[in-house]
Design goal:
Elements: H1 5-21, E1 25-30, H2 39-46, E2 54-58, H3 63-72, H4 77-90, E3 97-99, H5 102-111, E4 115-120, E5 128-134
Parallel strand pairs: 2-3, 2-4
Antiparallel strand pairs: 1-4, 1-5
């Protein structure tokens, strides 16, 4: 079988995208937190239905955000936009604050005693505590 440069680049791109989609996501809290959460708790926190912790989100369009919500809330990006539009309009909840990337989420959580966020598990260090891992 003969490969050309275009075929090789497409194959490598698909491989990179698929590896992002299956990466483990660490749900993190402040390193001093004594919190313990289930996946159901995390879903409620990030959907504004439980206020025991303060969530921070990844930016819209980020692959880790899409994977997180698909795994935890069983909602894709457009469903999440519709959900938050409804919640904001009805005054029932406000969406989480948004941070740019894993480093920004980790820094935000490290500074906030009741903070909770999610990052790629490879970004975890001792500045935060892993509460849960989702795929």
């Amino acid at each position: 079988m003969k490969f050309n440069t275009k075929t090789l680049l497409i194959s490598l791109s698909l491989l990179a995208v698929s590896s992002v989609a299956i990466a483990d996501i660490a749900v993190i809290a402040n390193s001093n937190s004594s919190a313990s959460v289930s996946q159901k708790d995390v879903k409620k926190i990030f959907l504004g239905k439980k206020t025991s912790m303060t969530p921070v989100d990844q930016k819209d369009g980020n692959a880790i955000r899409d994977t997180f919500y698909q795994s935890v809330a069983k909602k894709d990006a457009s469903q999440m936009k519709a959900y938050w539009s409804k919640m904001i309009f009805s005054g029932k909840a406000i969406p989480p604050e948004v941070s740019e990337d894993d480093a920004a989420v980790k820094a935000w959580v490290a500074k906030n005693p009741k903070g909770i966020g999610y990052i790629d598990s490879s970004s975890v260090d001792n500045s935060v505590k892993v509460l849960l891992t989702v795929k």
